[in-house]
Design goal:
Blueprint: E1 12-18, E2 21-26, E3 37-38, E4 44-45, E5 51-52, H1 60-67, E6 72-73
Parallel strand pairs: 1-6
Antiparallel strand pairs: 1-2, 1-5, 3-4
Length: 80
């Protein structure tokens, strides 16, 4: 996060499991024509394949974005 960026301007997302890893899905995203969801790192998945964060490894790129403050982690939309 840059020094002049307020916390309210930081995108928010949540950890979700799909494929072989846990990824960050943004709370605000642009819908794709094919209906797939796009993880912060760019990985695509059909919504039906998304589950809560589990014991799969975390995506290194998504984790770095969280650790550097580029995105804030919140609860998934249905649990918030």
């Amino acid at each position: 996060m840059s020094d002049d960026q307020s916390i309210e301007d930081t995108p928010t997302g949540y950890w979700a499991a799909f494929g072989y890893q846990n990824h960050i899905l943004l709370n605000r995203f642009v819908p794709r024509d094919d209906g797939k969801l796009t993880a912060l790192c760019g990985v695509l998945t059909p919504p039906a394949e998304v589950s809560e964060k589990d014991d799969r490894p975390v995506c290194a790129w998504c984790a770095e974005q969280v650790q550097t403050g580029q995105v804030r982690v919140e609860l998934p939309p249905d649990t918030a």
